Queue: 4 jobs
Job 1
Amino acid sequence: MLVTGAAGGVAGAAVQIARHLGARVYAVTTTENVARVRVLGADVVYDRSQVDFAQELWRDTGKRGVDVVLDSVGSATWAGVLRAVARLGRVVVYGATTGPQAQLDLRALFWKQVAIMGTTMATQAEFEAVMGLVFGGELQPVVDTVLPLAEARAAHERLEAGAQFGKIVLRP
Ligand SMILES: NC(=O)c1ccc[n+]([C@@H]2O[C@H](COP(=O)([O-])OP(=O)(O)OC[C@H]3O[C@@H](n4cnc5c(N)ncnc54)[C@H](OP(=O)(O)O)[C@@H]3O)[C@@H](O)[C@H]2O)c1
């Protein structure tokens, strides 16, 4: 499985869940977060400021690609996502942080017989199953900072600067 934007709150959870389920996890992040994403459970982490992650992944998987790609980065990673997915693989989209418009080369879709799907939230049963893993200590919520609600502006600025690792919590 490949998880892009791995320093993100959702992506960090996804890395841990994928690892828990026994997947070999490939992840993409920025230089300062490479080591932290490894700690979350990624087997291979690409520094997006240094390498073309899709090219590296293609080589690292023996020109096979990954069975599942989980992406919320959107426009900036879309071309790489389609290169990284294996024949008969799945691309799961849950966000569009860098923009909602993406070009699709239909040849990649049919030659590789790829399925593209969107996802949002979960069922109550899925939520409870994951929370069981959190309360059991198997998954660690990744919290970047906890700020008072009055500092919501600073929290947004931190997000906009891409300086966070995981979620920012606002407390009353
Ligand atoms: N479908 C749903 O139910 C659902 C639920 C929650 C959130 N979302 C959506 O999912 C997305 C992520 O949410 P989040 O709360 O996890 O956000 P987040 O913590 O802000 O994570 C976004 C990550 O995207 C990566 N990124 C940002 N700009 C990039 C660029 N130019 N190129 C490559 N990577 C870039 C960064 O990761 P790196 O620094 O590691 O590369 C960043 O940490 C958002 O678009 C949000 O709206 C959807």
Job 2
Amino acid sequence: MSEKDRVIIFDTTLRDGEQSPGCSMHLEEKLRMAEILDQMGVDVIEAGFPIASQGDFEAVQGVAKCVKNAAVAGLCRAKASDIEASAEALKPAERKRIHTFISTSPLHMKHKLQMPPEEVLNAAVESITTARKFTDDVEWSAEDATRTEDDFLCQCVEAAIKAGARTINLPDTVGYSIPEEYAAMFTMVLNRVPNIDKAILSVHCHNDMGLAAANSLAGITAGARQAECTINGIGERAGNAAMEEIVMAMRTRQDMLPYKTGIDTTMITMASRTLSSITGFNVQPNKAIVGANAFAHESGIHQDGMLKNEKTYEIMTPASVGLRKSDLVLGKHSGRHAFKKKLAEMGYELGDNAFQDAFKRFKDLADKKKTVFDEDIIALLGDDGALNERLKFISLSVKAGSDGQSAILELEVDGAIKKTEAAGNGPVDAIFNAIRDLFPHPDTDLPLYQVHAVTGGTDAQAEVTVKLEEKGRTAMGQSADVDTMVASARAYIYALNKLLRKREKSISEPGP
Ligand SMILES: [Zn+2]
């Protein structure tokens, strides 16, 4: 296989993915995810939209500092101020990419941009020229490409390449395309644009009709050599194409899809679980590749076949995506060494401070719980949301039972310790009333409160997910603890902290 069959994996979990309702991540969470993406062999990490907010700027800058192998990309509209902000945020990166976009479909140009086509073309060229002053690695996206007229698309692509764009992304921004049609667009552009050999074409698909991975693969078959995707398929609306689906389809069907990527597929399960734990967004059990049931065989006939030969019903092995059942069980007598070994087995490599922190949380948990399972460890690794937050949990005591329910809660609010007692319809309601009492936020609704046991047993950790909504913005918080009430308070506080950060975001431009 030659270099021409190499597909560049452009991960946008931290940008397009992070924009999806409830998936916002704070700086430490983005850095944790970026390190995993870098380790697993992602070629380009799109880290955010630097002009959107101070938080996004700092996240892109932070990722630019910590990533060792991948190129780091920042998204920009066709505006000099956006491009300058990206260039500034990307400064620490070894390899930086500026990704600029503008809509090219008649619908978007008329109603969203209110610009005639010639002006759009000029703005695209100008943005690429500006971006090239900061880096040679410039990507240009024709937003809503799949609903753009062929002639205009070709004209824009040719001009973009001439202006210095090395990657041309033709996104199915609204998830409207079907595979044959999406492939035909790439074939058309490859046949008609004279300087197309000077750029790499890229796919970027959304899953509104469940076709994101199929469309991406169709585009690659037609000649695209970069795939934009996210872990678990998170992203705007129904999500982006899932990286694990694209990568594993190519790996499993080399006969039909003879392409290679740089992805270490054995890190897929760990990346998926870490992202779920960070965002509080669990994947559906029947999700391809990473769902809890993706490799489970329950029907008797299947099990019988599997016992005779795994290939009867399994087209790829659990080990190929890093799914393994470990027999190393941890408990309160497990020391640093066993804990480190366990983490390594699960695919986690922590720095010294992060390891000490995690080990302390592990010991605290092991004191309360006989056996600490893999799921518990993932939950406790994710439970580091208290850094740099406006609200911090200090202590909680709850009265429950048939004589009424109330909560005494202590929080740190903007550095000051505050305490209150509140009643409610049930202990959880009392806790949430106490939080509202200490930090009023009257415009916020609670559309979701969910508890599930991380593992079996009455000493299982409860994993609580809370979703808050305020004026169209949503934020998820998740926490695990052997005490359901403590987990509830923490999850609510995480969600509220995220919502407060979202209030800062000024630009709601969704991007390609
Ligand atoms: Zn998108």
Job 3
Amino acid sequence: MRITVDRSKCTALGVCESLAPELFEVQEDGSLIILNERPEGSLCSAAREAVEGCPTEALRIEED
Ligand code: SF4
């Protein structure tokens, strides 16, 4: 899988980071960094939770 973010929708509140800190990090300037765009194993379920938890639907998962 691959995680993508639509930056025009991201409000940088960090719900994804709180659900999956291994995968997401919100910077002080309000930009979102995806630490691992291609999670594997147990991180895949964390990625899906973060995508579902994003309040602005900015995150997407593309299946390989
Ligand atoms: S939860 Fe969604 S809106 Fe919030 S920081 Fe993450 S990607 Fe951006």
Job 4
Amino acid sequence: MDAEYYKLSAENAAGLFERARADYDVVAKTRDANGNLVYGRPVSFEDVAFVDEQPPMSAKAFALPQNETLVRYERGGGEIRAETPEAPARDLLLFGVNVCDAAAFDIIDRVFQWDYLDDPYLARRERTTQLALACTALQRDCFCNRISYAEDGVDAVAYPREGHYLVKIQTDNGRRLVERYRNLFAEADGDPETEITSFLEKAGTAKREPLLETAQSGLAGAFEHADWEILASTCIGCGICTYTCPTCHCFDIQDEGGYVGGRRLRTWDHCTGRTFTAMPAHQPRDRQYKRYRQRLLHKFWYYPERFGPVLCTGCGRCITHCPVKINIKELVEYFGGLSDAPPGGRRHAP
Ligand code: SF4
Ligand code: SF4
């Protein structure tokens, strides 16, 4: 659809939140009891945190929970009863989420509706509407300006202006949101696209040449690069980068229970872990640097080769939260041939 533009006053933004709570399960940034920034379910508009800062955990768990029961069974009375999860009872509204976190869903969607339709995930996505909030500045580790992820898949984006938001509607889902609360929105005046462009330039989030996509061909020739061992072997395989990442989506399946009853459970997994892809007789990624290499190449080579965009929004969480300070952006630039300087100045001895 062609984009549509509206003005939402600050006062009407509060009204939108309150009215939407009656119709949606509303998720927004808020503070937990300890003051930590999280994606949660604030009960009043005053509890919503309108900040550029990202919560450590992205919003992906609202479509792909950290743990979920895929099927539960019970045996008794000569029969076996099996239950699959019910579809979500309410529509979900992601209110004021970071644009990169909203865009990450579109990237994961491609996997979950590719060779197999993942019903539980897709049922949740079907009922999700995103009203993202544009950042006013790049954060310390972000590099979304270097990644050309598909922002136009985000249902609606609100750009903060003086006393109001300029809201860009990009999908039918976003249009339904406006139609539902039409009296809160006014038609935008002037030239909204020019206004948005100048907002992004001022914020530093305007897309520059998407350099990290151009690293793909360089990475394809760097699989055997000798420096992987030096530069990626500091990884301790903790999985923090994948758990906090909005686009990582690998999971494990566990069966629990026995003859009389049990369940099949899906839990997040991570490719940097020692047992990931391990087989009884062999672990093909038998060194830690190979496991980290897999994560990076999956994001910037294998996934784009199959689906188009890179498997990354440049949110920077994996840099911020890595306990050993591995920097994926610098590694992509180095192994992709965009920079001669190895991260940290370390280089494999010739
Ligand atoms: S790259 Fe960092 S965060 Fe990720 S598994 Fe390795 S040590 Fe943990
Ligand atoms: S790989 Fe790192 S920078 Fe990219 S989306 Fe995941 S956490 Fe964010």
